[in-house]
């Protein structure tokens, strides 16, 4: 396992106040201003649970001003792009995404939003920058004393979006170390890295796990772990663009649909139990209990209806992102650019080193 700490002094305040990154040596690399970076763009998708620090990390390293929240209520209800910045001779842009436990949107809406952003990114890169690099980063609070079912589900869906072959281009970032003592933090880190229920399978496939101590130096060190890697298309991008799948047919979509159906079945069973208990209460003339159960039954019915609406909306065609790609295809044709998406995918795969 790889862990990296930045120095005790925080470069972030000094650099952020200038809005444009000045030259700064970090581990032998040069962090340069936007004008000095070359034309090859590196795009990094930042994912993780709500409140895991995604927006804060992006703001720190890119001098952006994305909305942040100290609580668990999501401030990232849309996919957002950071300002472009120069790092190690390349132009870098980060993508901030809502978590699958978002407080303002359903999981199906979140997946569709991520799919649209990744597909747009794919087409733009094919047209304008065929050799542009794409990587992923996953944020995890080390201060969480246990990996909840929601956290495991978030990471599992993240893996379905990336695909197994892309995990070598993934960095799992643990943060919020200041909220735990060193002994507990190290024990938690070891558990996350060694338990097959958590991050071990991804680490075995080539993902890296690093610490972030909320300093600018720490954030840049993490970024520099990703930039030299050989780019590989994300599985979700390949499924939507190359294989022309509907969003519900992708690995992430199939997994999410399964999770949603399991949740629906759970509520249906709960509804049946409440119905039986309410009948028993009426039979025993316990009207107070019957009234409480009736209220609980109405709440559960509302949950079932909400899930069924999610399922229905998820079945709507995504037409392999044709509508999203259309304006970029037109622009490419006008510029005399031949866009061979399938060829591009296979070419990138053929040049990717074995895992």
TrEMBL record:
Its recorded name reads G domain-containing protein
Organism of origin is Rhodofomes roseus
Q: InterPro entries per the record?
A: GIMA/IAN/Toc, GTP-bd, P-loop_NTPase
Coiled-coil residues are: 257-310
Record keywords, A-Z: Coiled coil, Membrane, Transmembrane, Transmembrane helix
Q: Quick check: keyword Cell division in the entry?
A: no
Q: Where are the transmembrane segments?
A: 318-341
Per the database record, which ranges form the G domain? Answer: 43-131
Give yes or no: UniProt keyword Membrane. Answer: yes
Single GO term (MF): GTP binding
């Amino acid at each position: 396992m790889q862990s990296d700490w930045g120095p005790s002094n925080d470069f972030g305040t000094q650099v952020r106040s200038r809005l444009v990154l000045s030259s700064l040596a970090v581990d032998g690399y040069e962090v340069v201003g936007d004008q000095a970076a070359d034309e090859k763009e590196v795009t990094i998708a930042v994912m993780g649970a709500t409140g895991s620090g995604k927006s804060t990390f992006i703001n720190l390293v890119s001098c952006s001003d994305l909305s942040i929240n100290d609580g668990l209520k999501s401030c990232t209800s849309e996919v957002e792009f950071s300002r472009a910045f120069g790092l190690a001779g390349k132009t870098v842009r980060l993508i901030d995404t809502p978590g699958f436990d978002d407080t303002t949107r359903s999981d199906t809406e979140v997946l569709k939003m991520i799919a649209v952003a990744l597909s747009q990114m794919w087409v733009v890169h094919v047209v304008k920058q065929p050799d542009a690099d794409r990587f992923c980063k996953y944020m995890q609070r080390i201060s969480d004393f246990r990996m909840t079912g929601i956290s495991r589900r978030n990471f599992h869906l993240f893996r379905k979006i990336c695909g197994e072959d892309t995990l070598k281009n993934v960095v799992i970032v643990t943060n919020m170390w200041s909220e735990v003592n060193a002994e507990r933090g190290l024990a938690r880190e070891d558990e996350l890295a060694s338990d097959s229920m958590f991050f071990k399978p991804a680490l075995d496939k080539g993902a890296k796990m690093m610490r972030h101590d909320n300093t600018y130096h720490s954030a840049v060190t993490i970024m520099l772990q990703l930039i030299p890697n050989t780019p590989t298309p994300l599985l979700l991008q390949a499924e939507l663009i190359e294989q022309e799948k509907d969003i519900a047919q992708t690995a992430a979509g199939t997994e999410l649909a399964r999770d949603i159906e399991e949740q629906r079945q759970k509520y249906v069973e709960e509804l049946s139990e409440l119905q039986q208990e309410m009948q028993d209460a009426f039979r025993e003339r316990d009207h107070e209990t019957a009234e409480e159960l009736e209220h609980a039954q109405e709440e559960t019915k509302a949950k079932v209806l909400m899930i069924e609406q999610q399922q229905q909306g998820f079945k709507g065609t995504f037409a392999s992102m044709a509508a999203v790609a259309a304006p970029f295809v037109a622009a490419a044709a006008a510029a005399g650019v031949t866009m061979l998406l399938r060829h591009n995918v296979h070419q990138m795969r053929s040049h990717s080193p074995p895992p």
